[in-house]
């Protein structure tokens, strides 16, 4: 989808970090925007920022883990604008980094509910409407480098991102087989300086962190803090949409990690834990 000007974008998780970065980039490309997030005040601030920059933007408070709320988001975007051309299923959270056998069921439910089912709900609510409109379109699902490699950290998150990547590849093939005018991309960022280390600010039932979990969270904050600027990710996303690129990688200098994993699979080696570099 080369021409973005005047087209309609819907972005989930748009009140912070990468979602906000994509929204501001869409604004710079003079797109019309419907931005969604579970955090009402932060969402209102982003809408105000977009409006102040002269952008036609509205906010819809939405919990992507709730399929009825995502359906209501789609309805309101189509009622307001008559079409949606770019859908970014971006909202995401990260677990507290416990070994999988110690991870409480509520952690699995929260992370898979937002990261995976949020994308499923976006596809369910928007794709039929986008197909019916016959307008050109593009869907960007936010996965992660954690959808391409595995480590010893954040297992529910890693599982959710592998699932989002597989879902995105399947969706791409399904739409291509139908010759639908809708492209798909999977965004696979490395470290980006966002608020995701404190994702539990939006958790329905927050829980206290143990000492080790607090140490790990501090390490995550520090790695993220040295990461790429979210605004740069937003521009990369729109470039990929315009070029029709499927995989959007923010850290191509980490490609050797992906190569090592797949070479290990092909060679029948045991999985080696990947350590993500700081940059
Ligand atoms: N920051 C990184 O280094 C990095 C790397 C790879 C992938 N990602 C992915 O990028 C996406 C955005 O995360 P971020 O890093 O910008 O974090 P962030 O915390 O800055 O932004 C995430 C946004 O999602 C919103 N959100 C959380 N739960 C929600 C829900 N149930 N419904 C709707 N909105 C919800 C939050 O309120 C927040 O505004 C996530 O999918 C994340 O997994 C981030």
Could you explain how this protein is built, in words?
- The protein has helices spanning 17-28, 40-52, 67-81, 105-133, 155-177, 211-225, 230-243, 255-267; strands at residues 8-12, 32-37, 57-61, 86-89, 137-142, 182-188, 247-249.
- By secondary structure, it is α/β, with parallel strands linked by helices.
- The chain has a seven-stranded parallel sheet with strand order 3-2-1-4-5-6-7, with helices on both faces.
- Helix 2 links the parallel strand 2 and strand 3 (57-61).
- Helix 1 crosses helix 7 and helix 3 (67-81) packs parallel to helix 4 (105-133).
- The site of nicotinamide-adenine-dinucleotide (NAD) has 32 residues, from helix 1.
Number of domains in the coordinates?
1
Low-confidence stretches: none
| Helical coverage, percent range | 40-55%
Q: Tell me the major beta sheet.
A: 7 strands, parallel
Sheet with most strands: strand arrangement:
3-2-1-4-5-6-7
User: What's the gyration radius in Å?
Assistant: 18 Å
Name the CATH superfamily classification: NAD(P)-binding Rossmann-like Domain
Question: Which hetero compounds are present in the coordinates?
Answer: nicotinamide-adenine-dinucleotide
How far apart the termini lie comes to 31 Å
Overall, the morphology is: globular
Kindly report the CATH topology.
Answer: Rossmann fold
Written as H for each helix and E for each strand, in order along the chain, the element string is EHEHEHEHEHEHHEH
Second rung of CATH, namely the architecture: 3-Layer(aba) Sandwich
Structural classification: alpha/beta
* Average pLDDT: 96
Strand content: 5-15%
SS element count, helices: 8
């Amino acid at each position: 989808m080369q021409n973005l000007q005047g087209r309609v974008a819907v972005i989930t998780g748009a009140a912070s970090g990468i979602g906000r970065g994509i929204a501001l980039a869409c604004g710079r490309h003079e797109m019309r925007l419907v931005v969604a997030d579970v955090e009402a005040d932060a969402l209102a601030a982003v809408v105000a920022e977009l409006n102040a920059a002269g952008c036609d933007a509205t906010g819809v408070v939405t919990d992507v883990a709730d399929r009825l709320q995502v359906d209501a988001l789609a309805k309101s975007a189509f009622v307001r604008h008559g079409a949606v051309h770019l859908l970014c299923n971006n909202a995401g959270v990260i677990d507290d980094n416990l070994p999988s056998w110690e991870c409480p069921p509520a952690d699995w439910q929260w992370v898979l509910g937002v990261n995976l089912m949020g994308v499923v709900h976006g596809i369910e609510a928007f794709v039929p409407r986008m197909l019916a409109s016959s307008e050109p379109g593009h869907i960007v699902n936010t996965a992660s480098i954690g959808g391409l490699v595995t480590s010893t950290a954040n297992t529910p998150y890693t599982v959710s991102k592998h699932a989002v990547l597989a879902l995105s590849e399947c969706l791409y093939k399904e739409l291509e087989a139908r010759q639908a005018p809708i492209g798909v991309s999977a965004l696979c960022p490395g470290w980006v300086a966002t608020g995701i280390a404190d994702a539990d600010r939006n958790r329905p039932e927050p829980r206290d962190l143990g000492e080790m979990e607090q140490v790990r969270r501090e390490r995550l904050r520090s790695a993220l803090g040295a990461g790429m600027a979210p605004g740069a990710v937003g521009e990369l996303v729109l470039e990929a949409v315009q070029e029709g690129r499927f995989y959007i990688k923010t850290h191509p200098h980490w490609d050797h990690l992906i190569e090592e994993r797949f070479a290990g699979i092909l060679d029948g080696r045991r999985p080696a834990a990947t350590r993500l570099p700081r940059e």
